[in-house]
Amino acid sequence: MRAGYHSESPHEVLLHFGTDAARGLSRKEARRRLKRYGPNRIIKRKRPGFLSIFTGQFQDLMVLTLLGATVISAAMGEFIDSLVIACIVALNAILGAVQEYKAEEALELLENYAPPSAVVVRDGAEQEIDREEVVPGDLLVLTPGQRVAADARLVEATFLQVEEAVLTGEALPVSKDASLILPYGTPLPERKNMVFAGTLITRGKALAVVTATGMETEMGKIAGLLSSATGQKTPLETRLESLGKVILVICLAICAVLGVLGLMRGMPFHEVFLAAVSLAVAAIPEGLPATVTLCLAIGVQRMAKNGAIVRKLEAIETLGSVTVICTDKTGTLTKNKMEVVEIVLPEDLRVPSEGTRASSQETTGTSVPGHGVGGRESRSHFKYGDRRFREILEVAVLASDARHPPGDRSLGEDPTEQAIVARSLDAGIDVAFLDERHPRLAERSFSPERRMMSTKVKTSEGALICVKGATDTVIPLCRSQKVQDRVMDLGPKDREAWEKWVDSRASKGMRVLAVAKRMEAQGSGNRALKGLQEVTDPEGYQETGLVLLGCLVLADPLRPQAKDSVEKCKIAGIRPVLVTGDHLRTAESVARETRILSREEEGITGEMLDRIPESQIPSVVESYRVFARVSPVHKLKIVRGLKKKGHVVAMTGDGINDAPALKEAAVGVAMGCSGTDVARESSSIILVDDDFSTIVKAIEEGRCIYENIRKFIRYLLSCNLGEVITMAVSAILGLPLPLSPIQLLWTNLVTDGLPALALSMEPPDRDIMKKPPRDPREGIFSHGLLGKILTRGAYVGGVTTLMFVAGLKLWDVKTASTMAFATLVTVQLVFALDCRSETKSFLEIGLFSNMYLVGACVISWLMLYATVCLQPLRVVFDTVPLSISQWLGIFFVSVLPAVFGVVFRKG
């Protein structure tokens, strides 16, 4: 199917599809086209099964290393060791597979935005059919409350308005006009002669010829983009992958060297192999993957309490590396709900030298000082009891069809009119009683050409004409304006003042409606008061000679915390970028109010972006902070361009149009309340409260967790290095094995595990949000971490070996092995307290400021003590009881680095 139907007339499109404008397609032809084009549904790509996803988890090098240790341990008869390692590997694989399997559900949820049925004209009669049976060339019958079943070119339209926020992100319904013929390549949000699958009819009615179904619709194209979008590998994944490679190489190299040395000395092959297995178990930090997963899981719980649900564990850490946040406007920075944010009466703009002559008409009313606001924030500055304020709202309601506040979109009511109803209800106006007091006698509906709506209602004094609409339409029809308690002429300077004021509000992306009325004389209204027959008589009243009551300013207000959240992002070195389907002027206004954009800076539109060569896209997107009138393809292009420039991108959004970019970004942040299911399933994090400020809390949590991960990586690797040194030095010196594989495994999984997990509970530093984001290319061992690991690892290994050698000289091998085992564990537990900070001693930050760590160290040491003192455990771990003097020696060498903390911490 060709594109560009918006640039052709309805007759040309009908001719192209062979559709009769009155009779539609025949049933026979519809069946033939259904076979040719297929059902009108989004094709579900074949999803990988859970087993396939699960087996894919075993491609990670760290996992392969652990599996190697499992096989070696089992081959040597160490079945307990191999069983524990295998359990850890399986647990991590299951967690990863479940997360990936859930993410595959995003495509299926696009079905939620396809209506179950559609009304079409076939063989000259309207009939309701299943949406999957709609074919290109079908004539769709569109009425309020319906979701459009397929992309279509309008043939006829009467006062049609369509809400397209799900595709374009624009909150207000768009007026449509079937007679328009637009230039080829007109951006999707500006195709006023087209309707699109999944959008909602809010007003009017229309006939439209279907131009695209299924995957050829704009909704289908989004599904295609969603399936092609590739997630960015997170910094944590990259670093752990690098770490796995390093550990694997080191482990194999050391095992090979020591194996050769052993064989050269004439050691039996079995002993050499057992030594190699012990060394491999010592070198591999079996608890690291599980500890990272548990640390991230704890972060999930903390973030949930702050209003953020994490779907992908690694996203927590990735937030700490985010350099750019691409945020949508509607529903993210704003509330996605139209509100009356300002009411202006004529006296507010009154020019003293103009209109001093009062009209003969008598009116009543009082002034309402301070009843408006200048920004987009919604504030309640109105005096609800004032008659003038109530009057303008009552006339606006009488000139509207909506009778419910915003909330239920299925009613098909206009959101702008619903906002007027909501403000009227806040003012204490009984809308139902208002209709009873003033029954409608006639009406002239809103249309894109008229840009206004008027009604004629019954009052005790005669017929009242109520009008609301665009200021440039309504104000020219006004002869006078109501100033306090008098009706005064609307002079040229008054009109000029209104025009300037309207421009000031329009420049901020607000919508201004003028409200006016005219009371017909009792005599001229008698005929109208006899019944409702004039409703069908468009000439029953005149819309001229009106009295201007004032103007209502409507906007999608900013969220209360939006400005502060943007400012916090800037302080944290994160660049907020506004990406929206709305008009450029509106986007720039919101960006300036939230301080995303400075007064001098400007934005760029998707159409401008299309004219830029592909090679220049990364540089261009990096230089702008506002992107308006963008399509899903543009959003993907922006995210990919930023990624090519080395940025770690977070993308926020709530619509279907955001889903591909959410999936492409390193962190996709979806709105929980206003967001679509597709956006939520494509995201990494969901904001329960839809509050942009929650992102800032999530970033702080992400940075804290990454710092804590560094702490326990420092702890675990230093401890494992100490174990490697102990085993390697003993082998080189020809000493007996100081530790058995099960003692090493027990130390790594239990003694190391609890303190490492407790380190993840460390509270964040006070200045963590005053630091810039981490460089995405920064290694996990940066800022001297590797030096600290090597220094402390050398101490742990050296002191354990010395205690083993001393035990051999003073006692027997079994006692020496037990002393080495107890020394290794105790030294590590004291070291855990030192890992709480990379710049301060735990004595400076307070021993009891992290009670989780204190408790973990106490429990772990008691478990060590149990293996030495309890007879059943002594048999399993091959230990003997130690004397008080032996324990004192162990404690001394363990606390020595803490006493001289400056020397050993900065090494």
From TrEMBL:
Subcellular locations according to the entry: Endomembrane system
Record domain Cation-transporting P-type ATPase N-terminal: where: 4-78
GO cellular component, one term: plasma membrane
Disordered, as annotated region: 352-380
Topology term for the membrane: Multi-pass membrane protein
Regions crossing the membrane: 50-73, 79-98, 246-267, 273-298, 715-737, 793-811, 845-864, 884-904
Molecular functions (GO terms): ATP binding; ATP hydrolysis activity; P-type sodium:potassium-exchanging transporter activity
InterPro entries in UniProt: ATPase_P-typ_cation-transptr_C, ATPase_P-typ_cation-transptr_N, ATPase_P-typ_cyto_dom_N, ATPase_P-typ_P_site, ATPase_P-typ_TM_dom_sf, ATPase_P-typ_transduc_dom_A_sf, ATPase_P-type_domA, Cation_transp_ATPase_P-type
Keywords: ATP-binding, Magnesium, Membrane, Nucleotide-binding, Phosphoprotein, Translocase, Transmembrane, Transmembrane helix
Biased composition (Polar residues): 356-367
GO terms, biological process: intracellular potassium ion homeostasis; intracellular sodium ion homeostasis; potassium ion import across plasma membrane; proton transmembrane transport; sodium ion export across plasma membrane
PANTHER family in UniProt: P-TYPE ATPASE, SODIUM/POTASSIUM-TRANSPORTING ATPASE SUBUNIT ALPHA
UniProt record similarity statement: Belongs to the cation transport ATPase (P-type) (TC 3.A.3) family. Type IIA subfamily.
Protein name, UniProt field: Cation-translocating P-type ATPase
